[in-house]
Amino acid sequence: MPIMTTPIFPPQAPGSRPKGARSEREASAHVRNMFSRIAPRYDFLNHLLSLSLDRVWRRRAASKFQRVLRRTNARVLDLCCGTGDLTFAMERVRMKAWRDRGAYRIPMVGSDFAEPMLERAHEKGRQHHRAAVFVASDALRLPFPNACFDLVTTAFGFRNLANYENGLREIARVLKDDGQVGILEFSEPKGGPMAGLFRLYFRHILPNIGGIISGSKDAYRYLPGSVAKFPSRTELAEMMKRVGFVDVKIFSWNFGSVVLHSARMPEQASEPVNN
Ligand SMILES: C[S@@+](CC[C@H](N)C(=O)[O-])C[C@H]1O[C@@H](n2cnc3c(N)ncnc32)[C@H](O)[C@@H]1O
């Protein structure tokens, strides 16, 4: 009789697979420990390894959502916010639009499950007199009610989720009808003159510098591996549509190495009219 084995990761559930993790729970724990370990050097290394382009990408992503950010009553969640750089970039867009208006400010919410990253976000917010609030929570089990946000964003965090489709479902759950989502991620350019150069930098140079400065070689080896295994831009777009998002748009920057997916929840179906 054949021996039946239960796959630990069902084949239909793509998600982050750090080396040695045997279940989604272990994958999440591994990711949380890794980011907690590198938190003290995270910002410094981000800016160094990207030559500060990371700030440009977050600013660009924030500007794509200007319309919703400028609404004084918009509720915004930055998922996997880390040390809060996208949260603050979006807050800057809001502050610019609201200057002189004295509008009531609904604070932006940043959430992450690595508390040492959140402590830094909180400290940066305090130093720069920001209103954003930071909440410890797992992106796959958010502590928010259904349909409460107008915009959910995530920068360089979605790729680390142990189950991408469940991550999208959780985003869809907390978004209001017509609410928007933005997912900013790294991507491996597949062709063109920059593809080889990118691979050399991302797979060899970056892990070495990152490993030496952060003292965590694993973390900076995990980064190129996780980018290589992340669904392609069209696969992610298809997954978003399957979960129920509409108007999926893809913006590609830096020779295709940084990609923003934006989309929205459908507007509420209108009530049938009974004559
Ligand atoms: C590469 S950092 C990105 C941080 C920030 N968004 C930025 O732009 O610099 C990825 C972050 O995602 C967080 N993260 C990964 N999986 C998560 C999950 N399931 N729930 C909450 N946060 C998660 C990590 O703790 C980490 O802080």
What does this structure look like?
With 275 residues, the chain is of the alpha/beta class. It has one domain (24-188, 232-264): Vaccinia Virus protein VP39 (Rossmann fold, 3-Layer(aba) Sandwich), CATH 3.40.50.150. The chain is 46% helix and 17% strand. Helix 5 (115-127) links the parallel strand 2 (109-112) and strand 3. The chain binds S-adenosylmethionine. S-adenosylmethionine binds at residues 28, 31-32, 35, 46, 80-82, 85-86, 112-114, 117, 138-140, 155-157, 160-161.
Topology of this protein?
Blueprint: H1 24-49, H2 53-64, H3 66-69, E1 76-79, H4 85-98, E2 109-112, H5 115-127, E3 133-136, E4 149-155, H6 164-174, E5 175-186, H7 193-214, H8 217-229, H9 233-243, E6 246-253, E7 258-264
Parallel strand pairs: 1-2, 1-4, 2-3, 4-5
Antiparallel strand pairs: 5-7, 6-7
Helix pairs in contact: 1-5, 1-7, 2-4, 7-8
This protein binds S-adenosylmethionine.
Residues 28, 31-32, 35, 46, 80-82, 85-86, 112-114, 117, 138-140, 155-157, 160-161 line the site of S-adenosylmethionine (SAM).
